[in-house]
Amino acid sequence: xxxxxxxxxxxxxxxxxxxxxxxxxxxxxxxxxxxxxxxxxxxxxxxxxxxxxxxxxxxxxxxxxxxxxxxxxxxxxxxxxxxxxxxxxxxxxxxxxxxxxxxxxxxxxxxxxxxxxxxxxxxxxxxxxxxxxxxxxxxxxxxxxxxxxxxxxxxxxxxxxxxxxxxxxxxxxxxxxxxxxxxxxxxxxxxxxxxxxxxxxxxxxxxxxxxxxxxxxxxxxxxxxxxxxxxxxxxxxxxxxxxxxxxxxxxxxxxxxxxxxxxxxxxxxxxxxxxxxxxxxxxxxxxxxxxxxxxxxxxxxxxxxxxxxxxxxxxxxxxxxxxxxxxxxxxxxxxxxxxxxxxxxxxxxxxxxxxxxxxxxxxxxxxxxxx
Length: 371
Hints:
Blueprint: H1 2-29, H2 32-40, H3 46-50, H4 59-65, E1 80-85, H5 97-109, E2 114-119, H6 127-132, E3 137-140, H7 159-174, E4 176-179, E5 183-185, E6 199-204, E7 210-211, E8 215-218, H8 223-230, H9 242-254, E9 260-262, H10 264-267, H11 274-281, H12 286-298, E10 309-311, H13 316-319, H14 324-329, H15 333-338, H16 347-350
Parallel strand pairs: 1-2, 1-4, 2-3, 6-9
Antiparallel strand pairs: 4-8, 5-10, 6-7, 6-8
Helix pairs in contact: 2-9, 7-8
């Protein structure tokens, strides 16, 4: 036995050394950030890993969130907000109270030059639409003009994936700020409009495994948006968030000068993890409510200092039951954040300057966010 190991052992050690050299060489040859992103995107304990967070923004995230002086050679990102509401063929969308609150938050808080709602068809007799229609522009979209992923028809794609493609087409053509109808804004995005890069997104997950397409800012003709559109050549409808969250992160690693990544807390914290959804939407104690309100007072209506909006993802069971009565009488973190408070009570306080020369803002005021 001693002779066997004595004869073969050194050879095995040589093989092992060669393998280690190859592994190390491969590691050094690869882009470490792309390698880390691929590891973060592994489908292993995803929900647990996205909750890892050390509350430390990266230097790049800090720079991207900071106010920038205008870039002489570039126009700012258009301060035009885009929402999308889609329904199946031969159907119309009924605007929910949750949709209404998201759009109204943008009207009240974002100082936007225009807010557009893009749709195949909308029930314009809906009470919540009637409340908001004077403050937004309704844009009818021809379903047949939506560019489907290669090899697929538009009608065969899930509505969420149709909306994914439509938002990129809108931003490529017009630029602006796209937001899902479950994104609730707290403050204007003014600081981000002069960003030197042509697109701005935020990380999803404390481990920064992706850039979520629930909020996208871009100049028209953005190269990043164009590359993202081109990536749909490999679209697989069975991999739900590959092109909406994972792919833009990979593109950001490959083309870092094309998009500015923000901290998770700017739009996407807390996350879609079950514990986080409960944290935001279950009742809280009076002490917890007081603590949240103190933060909101300190941070201009937000939970965190650098937060501009909150994506209420994976909260359909809660959002579907929302009503003015629920918002006012049930203290949850979400309800308190979207309810009326002094800093967002009127356009006169948040929207100063919107009624200047060239403004299209109606003088009618939505007095509060939730009434």
